[in-house]
Amino acid sequence: MKKVILALLICIYCSTTSNAQAPNEKYITKVKTLDSTLKTLYGVISGEKGEARNWELFKYLFRPEAKLIPSGKNKEGISGTRYLSPDGYIKASGQWLLDNGFFEKEIYRVVDTFGSIVHVFSTYESFKSAEDTKPFMRGINSIQLLNDGERWCIVNIYWTQETAKNPIPKKYLPK
Predict the structure, then answer these.
(1) 72: left (phi over 0), alpha (psi -120 to 50) or beta
(2) Is the pLDDT of residue 168 over 60?
């Protein structure tokens, strides 16, 4: 009976710790605060045309089972979503970012916290180059994060871009 209980405890321990990201000393400062985590998120996907992104750092920001969920309307005008893992996002967008250049900048943030979970409505503007002064796109990232006591991890990012029929509400824009 003791062996069964011990085996069960080991299984429970392994299943709860397998979801945690392995420590990585070269990136730990990037996820120590909510601000540093969000700054790193926006920074790691941004770069000039032809500039490689640090996909190792990008993946380090996320829980292993995290989802990136773009939403919008299809050609028929029906709203929908896609569900991507961090690797799926890299596969779907990595080459486009490299070929076109892309900078996403946070311009406003609303944060709600309960215990170790945080929800951030992060308003962004997107540019093709750091030199651009007018964004080609704006939208809102709904970012869910977990603070495990050691670091911040992104659980999900769910976003949609602004359109003429769906402008960003004033409460999510800088005052």
Answers:
(1) left
(2) yes
Q: Cα separation of 11 and 31, whole Å?
A: 28
Does residue 118 surpass a pLDDT of 80?
yes
CA distance 138 to 122: 11
Contact 144, 118 (CB under 8 A): yes
Question: HSE on the CB side for 155, CA within 13 Å?
Answer: 11
Secondary structure (3-state) at 125: strand
What share of the chain has pLDDT > 90, as a percent? Answer: 83
Q: What is the pLDDT of residues 74-98, one digit of tens each?
A: 899 899 999 999 999 999 999 999 9
How far apart are the two ends of the chain, measured CA to CA in Å?
64
User: Which SS3 state, helix, strand or coil, does residue 30 take?
Assistant: helix
Tokens (6 digits) for 53: 């992104």
Helix, strand or coil, per DSSP, at residue 43 = helix
Structural tokens at position 135: 């964004």
